[in-house]
Amino acid sequence: MSENLARHFLLRDDVTFLNHGSFGACPRPVFETYQQFQLELEGEPVEFLGRRLHELLRVPREALAAELNCGSEDIVGVLNATTGLNIVIQSLGLKPGDQILTTDHEYSALEKTWDYICRRTGAEVVVAKVPMPLTTEAQFTDTVIAGMTERTRVLFLSHITSPTALLFPIERAITEARSRGIFSVIDGAHTPGHIPLDLTALGADFYSGNCHKWMMSPKGSAFLHARPEVQGLLNPLVISHGWTKQSREPGAKGAFGNSPFIDEIEIQGTRDPAAWLTVPAAIAFRRDNDWWAIADHCRALAQETARRLGELTGLSPLSAPEFSAPQMVAMPIPECDTAAVHAALFERYGIEIPVFKWQETCIARLSVQGYNSAPQMDKFLAALSELLELGTRQRAAQG
Fold first, then answer.
1. What is the topology classification, in CATH, of domain 29-285?
2. What is the pLDDT of residue 252?
3. Which residues form the Aminotransferase class V domain (predicted)?
């Protein structure tokens, strides 16, 4: 199966690509649709951007809204999840004494965003340390709720964490935040296409996710979702033709007839919208190839590889399997120079995989996508065993 699927992708033959989680990989049919939009744009830029764009942009909004079970007026395309979350974070009007409650598993770019906002506003970040290994929902949720105070203004959580590849059970924490008048802001960078996602049922105030990762659209396609009740709080990062003076008045429409939330964020100067326009093609590719069934196979392969590595290292996993991202697992490895191991895996073995240190744990973060195979997992385990002398360590541990 993996060999047949690999032919749909544009990845280099000389690289064993085990890092779908960082930037994704776009299937050839979807990429060809992307290029066709670009050719249409360059063939008649004024027609494409001046007369057709607003109708073109409506199509991916509607397709994604159907996929994620939300209103098409409540979701808007952005460049990436970091951009979407910056729109939210920089719009919330925080003030001295306000607290942002988050965890110690967040993506570094967003940690920096919160640091920037706190420097400007006098607000402060409160970090809840998630007990590890993560084995129960209550273990996570009770820890988060215990960190809420009368000063907590924002709950900021990753749905799937970047450094530790954990699937956080965020539902109950979001509900509790709502009951206390706390805004819930969710980093869903790794979530769309990775797990089934129902934004209406989840009920987060703000949710931003990437389409270019596990949904497999081209880079530069992501979304911001906001509940209708909170959309009026948001300001675009760039003021352009989508903005109107009346946009904050009740019942106001944006400059192009959509909600101000859509028009102000969607229209921010001249850009190439082709990646976002390709989202319906990515959804269709997944549907036509029964990708949720493929994802189940990938999950089994990821967990099996993690189990095998754990047997070699003797190190415990970061979580129970149900709290690991389905197709991505952060695997503890023995203490080492992670930068050197990362470089050696690529330069000597042609294996692309993140190897880094998170807190006091050295980690190799494995992603398994439909183009990967069991022989590639064997190759990775053999290469890492050689670099870290895992066989020698195991024999020494056994006496």
1. Aspartate Aminotransferase; domain 2 (3.40.640)
2. 75
3. 27-353
